[in-house]
Design goal:
Blueprint: E1 5-15, E2 20-25, E3 38-41, E4 44-54, E5 57-62, H1 68-72, E6 78-82, H2 96-99, E7 103-106, E8 111-114, E9 117-120, E10 125-131, E11 134-139, E12 145-149, E13 154-157
Parallel strand pairs: 7-13
Antiparallel strand pairs: 1-2, 1-6, 2-5, 3-4, 3-6, 4-5, 7-8, 9-10, 10-11, 12-13
Length: 165
Amino acid sequence: MDPEYITIGRILRPWGVKGEIKVEVMTDFLDRFSPKQEIYVKHRKVTIEGSRWHRGQVILKLKEIDNIESAEVFRGQFIEIQRSQVSPLAENEYYRFQLIGLEVWTIEGDCLGHISDILSTGSNDVMVVPYHGAELLIPTIEDVVKSVDLDAGCVVIEVIEGILP
């Protein structure tokens, strides 16, 4: 089941004394942080009044926050959007929340377990699958991932050297 809210960032700390906040970006859709966008913090709707980029992070001014004390309350909170606001992806592209929990099967028909996390490595993402007291790290590359079926709840992979202990 898809979550009702999707995380797009995390509030790191207040920025300045006028209620701005520094945000760690957790989405590829950077326009989510544009002025007038509606986002959610603690499932409460807030509106972005202004935004600017600073060293790979975004500084936001939210309409509902006007001083450092109010901004401090939001420290560490996640910024989310509603599921209905998710942008469509190209064919064979998936959101992390869609993959977590799916069963992983080999092309030979062996179930390896369920995806518990997705790690970003820079070159490609890696699916984490708990497996007999260890973790399998499965690269999301064409040579390995053969199919993803969201309706059936499974990913089929070809096991290459180094995946299984």
